[in-house]
């Protein structure tokens, strides 16, 4: 089934903007884009009004300041936890399917093999605790029509992210020291947007069981490995990137050492796992003119494509 009436919350963010662009590519879909300023997840009445009349709601709205959540946990959880509960309740009342974007940070980050979708959760920081509150609300209020899609290491054309930062710093510094003891799956936001749409369509067609899915690229690397690949794909010398350890960059919120997620559950929705992270990065950095409009990222006098 294609088409339908879609609501995207957080439509002004990196993923939200890609979602709206990808949804608008099909003229049979009717898309409502609501930015954070236009739709507040902490306002239940506003959510009920916004959700009414839509078939699918994709929640890309979130408190994303991981370090800030350490000192403002109540405020972060009001958005990422209670706000998601408000949205799930509005979807339950209207009959809309909810696709809620969550995070690898709900896991403790101490594994040595990919976390399956049903692995026990145990967040290691305030941001993860708030996101887990949201996940549990979706599962409780929408047992048949709620979908939690965990992602990680997201990069794209809109907003700050690691890939954009590496490309910028490449023009400012001769060498970059990048952490080599955190493992994850770099994931292009435009590819995740497309996967969320595929999942939403499968949900509308009755092919996708509710529950948790992992929306990350396959394969794994470290931040150091990603930085070197960014340099290589951009035609720069990857030897300019040097490895270092996390203890060199102490931050308020602890980061997981292992953020690799498993993807077995996609088969239940009739979908294959997402592409390998290197293939995703190659697509994101392909020459200008070979991407959908609005996915160029300009760094100094170098123009690459990312989305």
Q: Your description of this structure?
A:
The chain is an alpha/beta fold and 307 residues long. The chain has a domain at 4-155 and 186-219 and 260-275: Rossmann fold, CATH 3.40.50. 33% of the residues lie in helices and 19% in strands. It has 8 helices and 14 strands. The protein has helices at residues 14-24, 44-51, 73-94, 126-141, 162-170, 189-204, 223-233, 277-284; strands at residues 4-9, 29-34, 56-59, 97-103, 146-151, 154-155, 176-179, 183-184, 187-188, 211-214, 221-222, 241-244, 296-299, 302-305. Strands 2-1-3-4-5-10 form a 6-stranded parallel sheet, sandwiched between helices. Strands 6-9 form a two-stranded parallel ribbon. It has a two-stranded parallel sheet with strand order 7-12. Strand 1 (4-9), helix 1 and strand 2 (29-34) form a beta-alpha-beta unit. Helix 1 packs across helix 6, helix 2 (44-51) runs parallel beside helix 3 and helix 5 (162-170) packs across helix 7. The chain is globular and about 55 Å long.
